[in-house]
Amino acid sequence: MSELQAKDTVRRTDSGELYGKPGLELILVETPLCRAVIAEQGAQLLEFQAADREPLLWLSPAARFVEGRSVRGGIPLCLPWFGINRADPHKPKHGLVRTRPWSLAGSDLEADGELELRFSFDHPGDELFEAAFHCEVAMRLGRTLTLNLRLENRGPGEAEYSWAWHSYFPVENVREIEVHGLENTGYLDNTRQLQRAIQGGSLTFPGEVDRVFENAASHQRIVTDSPISLTSENCNSVVTWNPGGELAAEMADVGEHYRGFVCVEHGNAFANSWRLAAGESAKATLYLRR
Ligand SMILES: O=P(O)(O)OC[C@H]1O[C@@H](O)[C@H](O)[C@@H](O)[C@@H]1O
């Protein structure tokens, strides 16, 4: 539907106005179906709440809003490499797009009341990541949150991309929740130099947990009083993370708040990384709701 109607529900604001911490430009969406806050930097969704539902995403009470730094919470997109850059560990963790300016390329209010926002990002190719690429993220904001990614390799040859939507979900106490949907799946344990292990039953978080599940199922459920459902298409890796108390104490934007979130991240990393030929593109989708 019309861009005009979308304008009535999409407002530009900033982190000073919304959180009392100036620093980043934000987009506030309010429709009869949901409320969302998005940082144009990184096309990072910070808040999403469907009408009559509890908030879907966790935004750290200690989050910082600084240009060039990722905000702790919501859904940062880690790309074109996930985690530590294995070729050069001195490069920034989780790639470069989460801390860069993106452009809001368009918005449409659909007939069913859902709002679609489209963001785009172009990387020219440089010393951080040699291949040029183009990235589009479409957010469909309704009762369900739907994220679509399209990534196009614009480099002259084949390039490898690993990435994830690094989603932070709110929980009352991370020690009391379970994640279902990863049973009997192999993982790389990032707390033990990526040793391989197999997840037996449901996943729990008694302390630091940092696991990369390759070739994972496309559906998970975070079991709390108000469960969260995660379904993806063409995301073959799932990463689960909570730093636990000791590590969190060293993270200024987490600290004592570590109990209040769990990360269940969908993407394609490690064995599932995308190898794209020159000019080739690939797509993935994530559906989240509670
Ligand atoms: O602090 P960052 O760079 O946002 O990363 C947070 C965590 O992100 C997770 O995805 C990784 O598996 C962890 O190893 C990492 O610590």
UniProtKB/TrEMBL annotation:
Family matches, as InterPro entries: Aldose_1/G6P_1-epimerase, G6P_1-epimerase, Gal_mutarotase_sf_dom, GH-type_carb-bd
Keyword Isomerase recorded: yes
Keyword Isomerase listed: yes
Keywords: Isomerase
EC primary class: isomerase
Gene3D superfamilies associated with the record: 2.70.98.10
Reaction catalysed by this enzyme: alpha-D-glucose 6-phosphate = beta-D-glucose 6-phosphate
GO molecular function terms noted in the UniProt entry: isomerase activity
Alphabetical list of Pfam families matching this protein: Aldose_epim
EC code: 5.1.3.15
Domain of life, per lineage: Bacteria
Family: Belongs to the glucose-6-phosphate 1-epimerase family.
Name of the protein in question: Putative glucose-6-phosphate 1-epimerase
